[in-house]
Amino acid sequence: MKKKGLCGFTLLELLIAVTIFSIVAVAIYSSFNVGIRAWRKAENSYKIRQEARHVLNTIGRELRCAINSTVMPFEGSSNYVSFCRAMKVSNPQGGYSEGIFKITYTFDAEDKVVYYVLQTYEETAKEESGTKSLLASGVSDFKLQYAYLDVDKIVWMDNWEKEELNIPLGVKVSLYYPSQNEGQVAEYSETIFIPTGILKEAT
Description:
The protein is α+β, with helices and mostly antiparallel strands. The protein has one domain. It is built from 2 helices and 9 strands; from the N terminus they run H-E-E-E-E-H-E-E-E-E-E. The longest helix is centred in the first third of the chain and has 53 residues, at 11-63.
């Protein structure tokens, strides 16, 4: 009686099979990893755009309500702006307080954050700090420019002195975030025209 031949893999065949499997596994992992990185970049970019839009909308909404005041005059620099507006805010007692409030937006370059500061008329008069809250984080830079009308053209300045005792015609707000491309930044900006702003050359 003849014995049936035994079927099996040689060592060389096993090595080839393992090598092919390893190559396929690495290719699958690499493709998956590239996809995950791309998804994370897209998600991070989306979050930055959403935050930038929120910041610009918030500042724009407040600036359009700015009013003139000799006690709390409009003033600003390239990374700081302060003005007043009439508004109603919630208080610790669970109710609401109405009146004239001073609003400040300021950039902390060291911490890379933009702060929103709210002060009541009394806090401003007493030079108290008011309520400070975080508006945006991870910001590379925050720039402001102020416009006035010089005859028939708009002129932009990096500073608006409170001695002007006027509100600028407009404010350009620019936010800069680190870009996905190394060494570059992503810019988000908006030009906000103020209804109560001056329509003549600043003195």
